[in-house]
Amino acid sequence: MPTPRIVRKRAEMRDLIVTNRALGRRIGFIPTMGSLHLGHTSLIDRAASECDDVVTSIFVNPIQFGPNEDYEKYPRDLHADVHLLSQHGVRWVFAPDVQEMFPPGDSTRVEVSGPAKPYEGTLRPSHFSGVATIVLRLLQSAPAHNIYFGAKDWQQILVIRQMVRDLGIDIEVVTCPTVRDQDGLAMSSRNAYLSATERKRALVIYSSLRQAEKLWCSGVAINRIEQELKKMLSAQEIQIEYADIVDAKSLLKMHKNNPNASVIILIACRVGSTRLIDNLLLPSQTLSSC
Ligand code: PAF
Q1: Hey, whose CA ends up nearest to atom 1 of ligand 1?
Q2: Residue with the nearest Cα to atom 8 of ligand 1?
Q3: How far is the CA of 29 from the centre of ligand 1 (A)?
Q4: Are 113 and 255 contained in the same domain?
Q5: Domain residues for 125?
Q6: SS3 162
C-alpha cells in the first residue's frame, strides 16, 4: 500500500479534503494523539471499509492535559505511526505542530457542559474543553463525512456527539467497539507506562467488569454490584477514582435496574502511577442503541 502523505498545515489539509469531496469521494477521519495501536487501526479499518479515503491526525493536544498530567512524557513516534498507517491504507496523515493548531495569541476555547460535567469532567476540569476545542479545529481542517472513536473513551464520545449536535457540524460520529488484548486489557497508549507486574494487576479491571456483568444478569442490586467491583479492584491494590453503574446517555447514577435504560459501567483508576479508564455496556445494550 502507498505511504500516506504527511500534511503539516491546516490550509493544505482542508484543500485536500475539500477537493476530494468535490470529486465525490467519501472521507473518513480518525483523530489520534499517535502512539498508535490495534485500537486505532481497528478504527482505521472500519473507516476504510465505509469510505473511499481515510485521513488520520496525529497531534498530542497540550490543552487537554492538566498541569500535573503526562503531556511531556506522552509517547511520540511519528515514524513508527506512519509506518503502521501505511499498512492500513491511510491516504493522509495530518500532523501539525503545536503552533499550527494554537498560533501565538490563540485565545478561543469550546466551553462544554452536560455530559462533560461528571466523572472525567470533575477529575480533569479543563480536559473536555481541550478535547472539544481540538476536535473542532481538526474537523475544520479535515471536514470529513465520518469521524471514528473507540468506545473505551465513552464520555469523550458523548461530549463530541453533544458538540456536533449543538454546533450543527455536518459529520457522522461513529462509535467502534473497544479493542482488548487477548488477556482483556483495553488497548491504550498509556499501557506502555505499566511495568510487567502492574500490567498483570491491571487485568482485574476487565475481569471485574465481567464479574459485575454476571451479577447484573442475575439481578443483583446495583449498589451491591458496585461494592463487589470496588472490592475486586482494591484487592489488586488498584486506586479507584470511580467505578459506577450509570445511564449510558446521561451518565446519571442508576439506583435501580431499569431494563429500558442504556446502562454502562464506568471505571477510572490508577495502577501504580498510570491512570487507566475502561467501561462495559451491560447486556442487551449495543453500540448502536446508545
Ligand atoms: O481520544 C484521543 O486520542 C484524543 O482525545 C483526541 C480525540 C485525538 C483529541 O486529542
Answers
A1: 32
A2: 32
A3: 12
A4: no
A5: 5-176
A6: helix
